[in-house]
Automatic annotation (TrEMBL), chains A, B:
This is Winged helix-turn-helix transcriptional regulator. It comes from the Bacteria. Residues 1-93 form the HTH arsR-type domain. One of its GO terms (molecular function) is DNA-binding transcription factor activity. SUPFAM superfamilies: Winged helix' DNA-binding domain (SSF46785). Pfam families: HTH_5. Coiled coil: none annotated. Gene3D superfamilies: Winged helix-like DNA-binding domain superfamily/Winged helix DNA-binding domain (1.10.10.10). The lineage of its organism: Bacteria, Pseudomonadati, Pseudomonadota, Alphaproteobacteria, Rhodospirillales. PROSITE patterns: HTH_ARSR_2. It comes from Pelagibius litoralis.
Length: 117, 117
DNA sequence: TTTATATATAACTATTATGTTATGGAACAT
DNA sequence: ATGTTCCATAACATAATAGTTATATATAAA
């Protein structure tokens, strides 16, 4: 609901390398918990909890497939994060005039939940 | 040094609303610790520690001005964060074909430290 | 030299995060 | 019915985070 609290959750979720790796994995397609956990050395419950963090941040969605609870990417909140970071594009050292256009499109496309911090 | 560890620090730093507000403040120009602390209800030591977190994440630099240690924005690592997030632009729901061009420019502009993740 | 200002650090507390192992429960297979 | 697979949750240990107050340090001013 609160945009700032949402950004808290999104950035906090992205701060963990395991969770970023999970998101990269999900960019290739949805996957079950065991499929997601396979490449990591941590336990399955630990992965389940990472998935819960990602879900609370709105970065993934869960589904139902027999016993499985596949996770799939839901990247809109990444756009919100980029949107916040875009405030600082003038400080990135390069010329990002075009980015303004892109962000304008983004705001239009996201006209669903407008307000942002 | 390590790009992934760097992203850990950057995203973790961005996960706190006080720190995001500090960065927004610094986008208007460098400021001393007391100037930065003024709008907040937390103590000065707390602000000093937030600044240390931002500095370790490479998001600010400190200067010297008599007794003051002014902080100023250093946004390159924000670009690194956006760069990572850009992997997922295809999932943002809109068409961001132009973003590819922007990112290409970004990579060129950042030809200083190339490797990411 | 003493005092004031600006900031950092130390010591402490409370909360949150991340991992573990053990176990529970749902859905499927036999 | 029983076992197997898949996942979640409970209970716990440890570490990191974020805040506090008290104090130290550096520079400037009187």
């Amino acid at each position: 609901m609160n945009a700032s609290a949402n950004l808290d959750a999104v950035f906090a979720a992205l701060a963990d390398p395991t969770r970023r790796a999970i998101l990269s994995r999900l960019a290739e397609g949805q996957a079950s918990v065991n499929e997601i956990a396979a490449p990591f050395e941590i336990s399955q419950p630990a992965v389940s909890r990472h998935l819960k963090v990602l879900e609370r941040a709105g970065l993934i969605e869960r589904g139902v497939d027999e016993q499985r609870r596949p996770a799939r990417l839901k990247a809109e909140n990444m756009a919100a994060a980029v949107d916040w970071l875009a405030e600082f594009r003038a400080f990135w050292g390069a010329s990002f005039d075009q980015l303004d256009d892109v962000l304008a499109q983004m705001k239009q496309a996201e006209a669903k939940d407008a307000g942002h911090d």
